[in-house]
Amino acid sequence: MQQTVSATHTGKQQAVSVKLEGIVKKFGKVTAVEKVDLELPAGKLITLLGPSGCGKTTILRMVAGLERPTEGRILFGGEDVTRLPAYLRDITMMFQSYALFPHMNVYQNIAYGLEVTRRPKQEIRERVAEVVQQVGLTGLEERPVAALSGGQQQRVALARSLVMQPRVLLFDEPLSNLDAKLRKRVREEIRDLQQELGITSLYVTHDQEEAMAISDLVVLMNKGVIEQQGDPRTLYTRPVSRFAADFIGRANFFEGHYSAGHIQVAGYQQPYQQEGISGKVTVMVRPEALKVHLSGDGLDGTIHHVSFLGSSTEFSVDTPVGRLEGVVAGDAPELPGRGERVKVQFAPQGTFLLPA
Amino acid sequence: MAVIGKTSLKGIASGRSPAWMAGLVALVSLLVLPWGRTDRSLLEFDSKLLVLNQAPWLGGVLLAVVAVLTLSSLLHLPLVQRGYALVGLGGAGFLVGVGWLVSTSVPFGVGALLVLTALLVMVGIGLSESGIIQNDPFVTSSILVCSLFVLLFIAYPLFTVLRESVLVKGVFTLNKIQSVLTSPLFISIENPYTDHSEQLLVNLTTLGLGLLGAGLAARGGLRGPRVLTGLGVGLVLGWIIGAGIFGGGAFPTSLYLALIVAPITTALGLVFALLEQRSRAVWVRRSLGVVSLLPLITPPFVFAFALIYWLGRSGIITSDLLGLKTSFLFGINGVAIAQVFAFTPVAFLILRGSVQGLNPALEEASTTLRAHPWQTFRDITWPLLRPGLAAAFLLTIIESLADFGNPMLLGGDRNFLSTEVFLALTGRYDPNEAAVYGAVLLCLVLVIFGLQRLWLGNTSFVTVTGKPGAGNFSPLPVWLERTLQTILALWGLAVVLLYFSIFFGSFVQIWGINNSFTFKHYVDLTNLGLPVLLKTAQLAFISAIIATLVGFLIAYLVSRQQFWGRGLLEVGSMLSFATPGTVMGVAYILAFNTGPWLLTGTGIIIVLALVFRNMPAAVRGVISGLSQIDKSLEEASTLLRAPSSTTLRRVLIPLLIPQLLAGLVFAFVRGMTAISQIIFLISPGNALATVLMLRWIEQGDLGRGAAMATVMILGLLTVILILFAVSRRLGRGTSLEAAV
Ligand SMILES: Nc1ncnc2c1ncn2[C@@H]1O[C@H](COP(=O)(O)OP(=O)(O)OP(=O)(O)O)[C@@H](O)[C@H]1O
Ligand SMILES: [Mg+2]
Asked: Does the keyword NAD belong to this entry (chain B) (predicted)?
């Protein structure tokens, strides 16, 4: 029962790229993942984002080797690992439930992987000490894990993954058990550590804000297929579909017409530039791109309600194309009040045209 | 596990294989251990029995195969190609070895056993390393080895029973079945010595109940299938009752008995379960914990034995108090009474689960909707209890059919299926007849399990035991509580009297006739019974350890691993739980009496019978334990590079210690008290305590039997109390349900 993995832990792992080719996964009759092609560049953090049940976890588990694809290949830096068992893949994963071993203390949990792979005692001690310090658990080594707060358990799980210096690090909604404030802090820490160590990471979440905040690349999924992938900015400003626009941030949608560099909406015309589209379109307008004025040019509208939320003010306006939602930063005393007739314009940065 | 040399990120594909360990074992076994045997003892050793002397070409082939595989496992070779070699060559070696044993009918020796197992392990490792199967080497080998065991020690014996019932002296014939099924021992309705026609009475009862059933079913509306079902059920029940009362023979008698015992037992079980949950009186709730202990510490026929003291021909109540010289106890009555005492705690344990699974919030909701308590019971509580009641009912039917000790002691001149199996084999020396009886009993039990499936869908006996819900139940109405308490008190009194009589009987000369105090029986017991008792404990202990380990492994495989044939393995391992003990016993005798698998006459066959009888309890205990452990713990361990053997050792076993401990103790206790499956298998030097006790009682040495029973009861009680103390120290409770 001896395992020696030579040339593995002699230094930091070289970051490796991960490639999924034509991956299909069926559970009996259910198709969880359908023909996914995906490339994770070495050393980057990629998020899989999408609604519940769209197959994110399934993809993650196939990369980990916990599930075998029905079709397709998985490559780590050119090496085909599709049939390689999970325990030989050199990958670690952070689970939603943390999956800490309840009968071991913090130190034992973190050292587990190193002990299992028979690293020398001295090396184990040093490496555990190093990650304990990295994730800020110093002084808690002897605690049973049950006696830790949620955030601390989270860190133990992270430390346990990092100490193995994996080729790829996987996260399955690791923050969903934390409260909102802590979630924000921990996700920044994860991002910092990941960038510092340069580990290729695949991160699953259904929280679009989290995805935008930490990713180099966001992969948006829907019903087992990839809807769109790109950096967070592209996804936000150039969604390929109504689903993508809706899932990433909020948006207003309405019918319009586009020709000769002008959007026409219910009799109102506004200059706008977008390649490769014309005729009947669906106009997407982000709330912050909705501008209202008491006078001037614009779509006719009536303010329906205004609510001050502290750092921003939200409002809605009834127009011939329906009720539109808007938002402005801070308190906005200049905003027209309820019932006032206004002109509505669309700022180009937050506006995008989709095929009707 | 695997020693992997990675030259680059691409280089995962070659390395050593753990198969060398199995290879080494096989190599050594081939060279120095006996391949076959000439007699029963597995410890026999003679250089003539080495495979190279016994069958030189076989030995040569196997040695070559094993040597090649072992060597290649030690070298850094491509995993996939070597995997295929392990599968191909190892599998061929295995088949050749088994083929030789089967074709020559030479009983296997220790060497053959080890070599074949090692080859199977190598095949498993090969399957995994070649990527044919995704599971890791340890899991794959475990699957193969466990499947082999289940096949050889559960499926094969049961198949043998069926085969022997149609294969008389090697010739296929249905005559045996026909002659047994028409013999008066099996069914006899008409009694020529009475002047009325029993057949007519039976027909009338059948018809009457059939019509009644149809009528009841039609009350809820005249729908064809429903009425037909009612008619069918009524006809079957009517025939059983009619034939049980007016006729005779093992078939109707056993069924009739089960039909009497099951409703009474289930009702009592429900009474106790309700009382435990809702009684106002603390003493009531406390004392019910003790009730659940009884079946564990009581050898199965001890109640029957104690009943003889009270109600027998010279029993205290019948003879001394009432002045009767009656033998009413010997027959269906006595067996039924004894079974009610023996099986009520079992029904209680099942119903306790489903009563605890009730959600008080539902009842509270119903009450706040102004439902009358009776309506609440009818509309809310009853439908939720029904699966549990059905489970308890069917399980007691099975227990009653399978029961051996009580009918043996109290059956009188009636015949019962389970005792007929035994008597056919040991009294009439007719293995084929025994096989027919065994097959009938087996079919009945499987039909009942099938019914349970139909009736309850997929809720099994295991899942109907729920978890305690939060909240408070409204207490029972006072009059109801009084009634139930009275029932409990009477039952308790009877049980106390029964135990007391055993205890008392072991200290008096001759119970009821000469009540002077004596140690005589204990002296006799020390001389005659102590070695047997120790031997029994030894065999039970060995079997408990194996049963727990194999049960743990099977539970882990079926609940945590995906593989082809998983369902089969689960069903196979549960089959021995469903099979009545006598059927299993006769199956072992028939399957392992000659030929390559000769095992009869050894202690090993007793151990094996106990292992495969008690393993399902361990399997279920561990499965329920596993269901409380998040699967991601194991996945985390796997991703931290632990092969599954390490995950088992370092993560699962430590977390499952309470279940494993309980499994071990229950398997031991059940091994000590087992009778039906092992009464066939005893041999000189391997006598067992329960069998000896039964013989003493049958011979009329009641005092000595009582002394043995007392020692066993107290011993087992101690063992169980220690278990409880230990698991309390571990801070985790032990569920008795697993022991049912
Ligand atoms: N072991 C399994 N057996 C059968 N179906 C499964 C299994 N695992 C997942 N599925 C199905 O596959 C689909 C995708 O599941 P998956 O867990 O990948 O979703 P997800 O995107 O992670 O969702 P969530 O955000 O809720 O975690 C679902 O329809 C799910 O029911
Ligand atoms: Mg998920």
From this structure: no
Which DSSP symbol is given to B50?
B
Q: Please, what is the angle between helix B581-591 and helix B156-166, to 10°?
A: 80
B646·A91 Cβ contact <8 A:
no
- pLDDT (0 to 100) of residue A11: 45
Q: In sequence order, which ranges of B411-562 are alpha helices (DSSP H)?
A: 417-426, 431-456, 478-505, 520-524, 530-560
CA dihedral B585, B588, B589, B593 (to 10 degrees): -170
Rg of the Cα atoms in chain A: 25
Q: Cα(first)–Cα(last) distance of chain A, in Å? A: 62
The span from the CA of B666 to the CA of B673, in Å, is 11
Q: Is A2 exposed, middle or buried (0-12, 13-18, 19+ CB in 10 A)?
A: exposed
Yes or no: say if B87 and B123 are a contact pair by the CB < 8 Å rule.
yes
Protein residues whose CB sits closer than 6 Å to any atom of ligand 1: A 27, 30, 32, 50, 52-58, 206
Q: Are residues B230 and B293 in the same domain?
A: no
Give the mean model confidence (pLDDT) for residues B416-422.
Answer: 90
Q: How far apart are the first and last CA of chain B?
A: 38
Structural domain contains residue B433: no
Q: Global pTM?
A: 0.84
Same domain membership, residue B369 and residue B230: no
Question: CB B93: neighbour CB atoms within 10 A?
Answer: 27
For residue B257, give its domain range: 249-416+477-505
Q: What is the mean pLDDT of chain B?
A: 84
What average pLDDT score do residues B526-541 get? 90
Alpha-carbon gap, residue B19 to B403, rounded angstroms: 46
Q: Same structural domain for residues B525 and B670? A: yes
pLDDT in tens, A70-103: 999 999 988 888 888 888 888 999 998 889 999 9
pLDDT one-digit tens code per residue, B292-344: 777 778 887 888 888 888 888 777 888 778 877 777 888 898 999 999 998 88
For residues B211 and B124, membership in a common domain is answered with: no
Please give the Cα distance from B613 to B402 (Å, whole number).
Answer: 13
User: Contacts of residue A97 in chain B, CB cutoff 8 Å?
Assistant: 630, 632
Is residue B618 domain-resident? yes
Picking from A199, A213, A195, the residue whose alpha carbon sits closest to that of residue A167 is: A199
Quote the tokens at residue B407.
């009918």
pLDDT at B13: 66
Residue ranges and CATH numbers for the domains of chain A are: 2-237 (3.40.50.300), 250-355 (2.40.50.100)
Instruction: Identify the helix (H) or strand (E) that includes residue A311.
Output: none
Residue B660 contacts residue B556 (beta carbons within 8 Å): no
Q: Are B252 and B243 in contact (CB under 8 A)?
A: yes
In chain A, what percentage of residues exceed pLDDT 90?
56
Question: Would you say B410 and B335 are in contact if contact means Cβ atoms under 8 Å apart?
Answer: yes
List the residue whose alpha carbon is closest to atom 14 of ligand 1: A55
- The sign one gets for the Cα dihedral A308, A314, A317, A323 is negative
Give how far B180 is from chain A: nearest CA, Å: 47
The preferred substitution site among A34, A49, A58, A68 for testing ligand 1, maximizing ligand atoms within 8 Å of CB, is: A58
CATH number of the domain at B315, please.
Answer: 1.10.3720.10
Alpha helices in B279-331 (DSSP H): 282-297, 302-311
Task: Give me the phi and psi of A53, to 5 degrees please.
Answer: 85, 10
Report DSSP letters for B546-566, one per residue. Answer: HHHHHHHHHHHHHHH---TTH
Tokens of A22: 């034509």
pLDDT digits (tens, 9 = 90+) for A302-348: 999 998 888 889 999 999 999 999 999 888 778 888 888 999 999 99
Instruction: Identify each DSSP E strand in B240-368 by its residue range.
Output: none
SS3 assignment, position B409: helix
DSSP code for B380 = I
8 A C-beta contact, residue A292 and residue A285: no
